[in-house]
């Protein structure tokens, strides 16, 4: 080896009770590069980075920075060694200012006690160790630090006021404060844990610009992500982890997204989903002139007509907050429409209790899976059987037959490939990773072979492997004759899965098309209300009694 | 009337000191994220410890120091339970109050009936002896016990500690987000212990002030719920040191009113309109038994007002109050 690499993590192993999170993982980062760390949820990326940041101690393995061996017992050790980390959940105190958050832990003494300041206090006194330690504890100087923070912010185009309170800042600005915290401590290596998860696309672009400026000045960055297009747009080299092991390292410009996805998942990933034709059956959901209010009592749906037939996937596209959640909840029976009627499988269920919707064969995958999709503190078994436990087969001599429930939960976990479940009666649903929890919810909702499935953002925030699995599970269910209403902000998902596409804007359907005829620009325009000027009639969807395809032909 | 007013103000200052000391102690503890409902117990401990040591040594200063140490020792129990063992702070605090009440009743019976001189009232040095001559305000403001001056001095000192020192910044961060503080190299355990034990020392001093300066003897349960008022005071003050002072005087005045109004009779002349209706009401309101409930009634009113007026965004309760911290969970 000629020159040692900047950072080398060699043979890192970390075991948690029952799980090997990292199994002899190697990572090498060059100076000045943006190094991607790619992997599915639960592949061991976060564990590896927590080891590098001193939060976990590895069971085996060594870390070298610039050729020197590091022993990291706490984040403070990592910071002293020049390693900074920006966590996914910001570690900022909203009540304090930017400057206070940045200097916390640095013990900046008041100006007269600073070694570099003009001061009436003689040098000999100032440099005395006792005086220093008293000044560091019982005084606080923010002037010089504030100037330095402002200089750093301005240099990297962060657009921040060092005196502002964190509570006044938006998410993008808060993230830049996190980066400032690291820069203020003169780090040479910055770890970013899924930094774009909380950002809008524009903010993400800005972040990427800032990162480029940082690497120009010799900083190295480790960028944790599971989004392939992000890897392609800003990462130089990428290391891929799979199930706690190295799955390869690649120069991004030399590989395709499909190569990366294959390394990440361990097999070929189908980006193109083959959809078979299916005969449409009877209508399973009929909404007529539905109006509904949101939680604040403001009208969110202003007259929606929707018919979904057995075996049909209706994709609903729209910018979030245009009534999708309310529509999903009305269709699933957990929100009452103010006017209009709801028929499920031919029965009028307007105003019926949610339980009747469930019993009529309605399944629901809510947008917020932790809050509404599961009982996070209950076991996987409890969650898997939430909708079915009243079924006769679970009747025991005294109440429920727990062995049967357990066996059923185990089958679901197996069938739907839910990972991270040690024991269905012990593992809590809330402890599963996002993708695996979603698979569990889907298992519960699909295994009852519903007449209608309402799926709100089923793949948001889950990793590539799980996305593929979920999409295929939805299409399989369609073949079984379930009618599906699919809400998604991912236009590709909508066009890949749907038989019909409806665009919702301000609580009304403003445009209808099919995947074959779909024009993305037009859909994008309609989603933002731009199509109305053209004088188009709002589709009433009343013609959907024919076949879906035929109704498309008419328009 | 001027005499009554002067006496009332004088008693207010002395009574407020209890609330200032106990309130500041609770404030420091809560800003670090540890609620300590044992104030009442720690105050009783401080009152008895201070009194007994003063009887033996004949020095109220040594007595005060002993009171502070007793408060700290009791607080250490709370700190160990809540910080190291991660016990429920509310339960541990109530336990501490019960413990303090029980222990002082048990050991205190020997000391009931003893008398001491305690702290004498001294004028403010240099200028005090002239300013004391000011009518009404003079005695109240410029001739007080050393513990009154100590309490007043601790208000700006506590403010400075919390808002203008690195230690204060770290303490606040520990009360807001211990995990974040830990990753920034702040020792969560050390700071929380420090804050709770220091807070206990303040409560002990408040108790010692009660027995050494205010009353001059020991009786069982002599704090009479003032420790609970101190806990409420912190909420009223919205976790700010300067507002503790304001609240302490408010509650201090209500306590003083009860003490000073004995034998005070106010009534409308027989010719005044509605005299027949109003006089019994006034008499009822000025009844000593009724007046002794005023501080507690005021506590309820003030808390309701504070909570209604400040919506949750502005409510300044430390975000991590009641939350134990351990590094392993993630």
Structural class, from helix and strand content of chain B?
A: mainly alpha
Specify the CATH class of chain B.
Mainly Alpha
Give the total of domains of chain B: 1
As residue ranges, the low-confidence spans of chain B are none
Q: Into which percent range does the helicity of residues of chain A fall? A: 25-40%
Under the CATH scheme, which architecture of the domain at 273-361 and 451-555 in chain A would be assigned? 3-Layer(aba) Sandwich
Global morphology of chain B = globular
Rg of chain B: 21 Å
Radius of gyration of chain A: 28 Å
Q: Specify the helix fraction band of chain B.
A: over 70%
How is the main sheet of chain A built? 6 strands, mixed
Here the CATH topology of the domain at 273-361 and 451-555 in chain A equals Rossmann fold
Trace the largest sheet of chain A across and list its strands: 6-7-8-3-9-10
The CATH superfamily of the domain at 273-361 and 451-555 in chain A appears as P-loop containing nucleotide triphosphate hydrolases
What's the short version?
Chain A is an alpha/beta fold and 555 residues long.
Task: Describe what you observe in this structure.
Chain A: GO terms for molecular function: ATP binding; ATP hydrolysis activity. The complex is a heterodimer of chains A (555) and B (330). Chain A has 555 residues and is of the alpha/beta class. Among the domains of chain A are: 94-186, no CATH class; 273-361 and 451-555, P-loop containing nucleotide triphosphate hydrolases (Rossmann fold); 370-447, no CATH class. Chain A is built from 20 helices and 20 strands. In chain A, the strands form four sheets. Chain A has a six-stranded mixed beta sheet, sandwiched between helices. A six-stranded mixed beta sheet of chain A has the order 16-17-18-13-19-20, sandwiched between helices. In chain A, strands 2-1-4-5 form a four-stranded antiparallel beta sheet, with helices on one face. Chain B is mainly alpha-helical. Helix content of chain B is 70%, strand content 1%. Chain B starts with a helix and ends in a 21-residue tail after the last helix. Chain A binds chain B through residues 50, 53, 55, 74-76, 79, 85, 91-93, 95-96, 100, 103-105, 107-109, 136-140, 181, and chain B through 161, 164-170, 172-173, 176-177, 179-186, 316, 319, 327, 330.
């Amino acid at each position: 080896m000629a020159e040692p690499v900047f950072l080398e993590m060699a043979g890192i192993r970390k075991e948690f009770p029952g799980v090997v999170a990292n199994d002899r993982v190697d990572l090498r980062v060059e100076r000045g590069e943006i190094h991607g760390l790619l992997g599915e949820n639960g592949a061991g990326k976060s564990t590896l980075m927590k080891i590098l940041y001193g939060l976990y101690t590895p069971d085996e393995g060594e870390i070298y920075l610039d050729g020197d061996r590091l022993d990291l017992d706490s984040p403070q050790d990592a910071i002293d060694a020049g390693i900074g980390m920006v966590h996914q959940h910001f570690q900022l105190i909203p009540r304090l200012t930017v400057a206070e958050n940045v200097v916390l832990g640095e013990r900046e003494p008041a100006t007269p006690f600073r070694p570099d300041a003009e001061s009436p206090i003689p040098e000999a006194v100032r440099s005395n160790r006792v005086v220093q330690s008293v000044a560091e504890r019982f005084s606080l100087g923010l002037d010089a630090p504030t100037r330095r923070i402002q200089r750093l912010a301005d240099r990297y185009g962060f657009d921040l006021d060092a005196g502002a309170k964190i509570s006044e800042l938006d998410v993008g600005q808060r993230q830049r404060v996190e980066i400032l915290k690291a820069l203020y401590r003169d780090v040479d290596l910055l770890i970013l844990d899924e930094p774009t998860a909380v950002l809008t696309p524009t903010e993400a672009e800005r972040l990427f610009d800032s990162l480029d400026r940082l690497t120009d000045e010799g900083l190295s960055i480790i960028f944790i992500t599971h989004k392939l297009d992000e890897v392609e747009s800003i990462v130089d080299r990428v290391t891929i982890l799979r199930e706690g092991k190295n799955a390869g390292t690649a120069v991004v410009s030399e590989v395709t997204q499909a190569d990366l996805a294959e390394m990440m998942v361990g097999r070929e990933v189908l980006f193109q989903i083959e959809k078979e034709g299916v005969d449409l059956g009877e209508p399973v959901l009929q909404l007529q002139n539905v109006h509904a209010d949101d939680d604040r009592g403001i009208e969110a749906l202003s007259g929606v007509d929707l018919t979904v037939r057995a075996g049909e996937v209706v994709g609903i596209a729209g910018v979030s907050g245009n009534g999708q959640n309310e529509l999903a909840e009305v269709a699933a029976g957990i929100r009452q429409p103010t006017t209009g009627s709801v028929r499920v499988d031919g029965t009028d269920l307007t105003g019926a209790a949610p339980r009747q919707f469930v019993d009529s064969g309605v399944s629901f995958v809510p947008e917020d899976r932790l809050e509404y999709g599961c009982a996070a503190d209950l076991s996987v078994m409890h969650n898997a059987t939430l909708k079915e436990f009243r079924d006769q087969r679970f009747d025991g001599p005294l109440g429920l037959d727990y062995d049967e429930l357990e066996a059923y939960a185990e089958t679901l976990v197996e069938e739907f490939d839910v990972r991270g479940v040690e024991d269905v009666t012990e593992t809590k649903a809330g402890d599963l990773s996002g993708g695996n929890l979603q698979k569990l919810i889907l298992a519960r909702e699909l295994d009852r072979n519903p007449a209608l499935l309402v799926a709100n953002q089923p793949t948001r925030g889950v990793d590539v492997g799980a996305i593929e699995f979920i999409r295929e599970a939805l299409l399989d269910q369609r073949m079984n004759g379930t009618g599906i209403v699919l809400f998604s902000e991912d236009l590709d998902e909508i066009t890949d899965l749907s038989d019909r596409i409806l665009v919702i804007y301000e609580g009304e359907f403003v445009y209808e098309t099919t995947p074959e005829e779909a024009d993305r620009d037009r859909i994008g325009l309609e989603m933002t209300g731009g199509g109305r000027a053209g004088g188009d009639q709002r589709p009433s969807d009343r013609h959907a009694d024919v076949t879906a395809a035929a109704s498309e032909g008419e328009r | 009337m001027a005499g009554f007013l002067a006496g009332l103000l004088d008693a207010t200052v002395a009574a407020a000191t209890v609330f200032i000391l106990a309130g500041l102690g609770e404030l420091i503890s809560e800003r670090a994220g540890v609620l300590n409902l044992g104030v009442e117990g720690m105050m009783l401990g401080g009152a008895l410890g201070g009194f007994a040591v003063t009887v033996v040594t004949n020095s109220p200063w040594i007595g005060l120091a002993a009171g502070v140490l007793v408060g700290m020792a009791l607080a250490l129990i709370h700190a160990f339970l809540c910080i190291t063992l991660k016990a429920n702070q509310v339960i541990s605090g109530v336990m501490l109050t019960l413990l303090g009440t029980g222990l002082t009743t048990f050991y205190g019976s020997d000391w009931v009936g003893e008398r001491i001189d305690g702290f004498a009232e001294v004028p403010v040095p240099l200028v005090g002896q002239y300013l004391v001559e000011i009518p009404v305000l003079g005695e109240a403001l410029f001739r007080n016990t050393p513990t009154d001056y100590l309490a007043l001095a601790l208000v700006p000192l506590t403010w400075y500690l919390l808002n203008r020192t690195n230690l204060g910044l770290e303490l606040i961060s520990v009360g807001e987000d211990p995990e974040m503080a830990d990753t920034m190299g702040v020792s969560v355990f050390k700071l929380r212990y420090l804050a709770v034990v220091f807070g206990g020392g303040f409560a002990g001093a408040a108790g010692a002030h009660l027995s050494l300066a205010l009353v001059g003897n020991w009786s069982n349960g002599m704090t009479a719920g003032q420790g609970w008022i101190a806990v409420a005071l912190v909420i009223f003050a919205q976790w700010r040191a300067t507002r503790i002072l304001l609240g302490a005087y408010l509650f201090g005045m209500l306590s003083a009113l009860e003490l000073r109004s004995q034998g005070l009779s106010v009534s409308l002349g027989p010719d005044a309109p509605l005299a027949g209706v109003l006089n019994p009401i006034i008499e009822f309101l000025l009844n000593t038994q009724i007046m002794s409930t005023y501080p507690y009634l005021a506590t309820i009113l003030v808390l309701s007002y504070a909570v209604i007026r400040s919506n949750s965004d502005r409510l300044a309760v430390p975000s991590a109050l009641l939350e134990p911290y351990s590094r392993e969970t993630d």
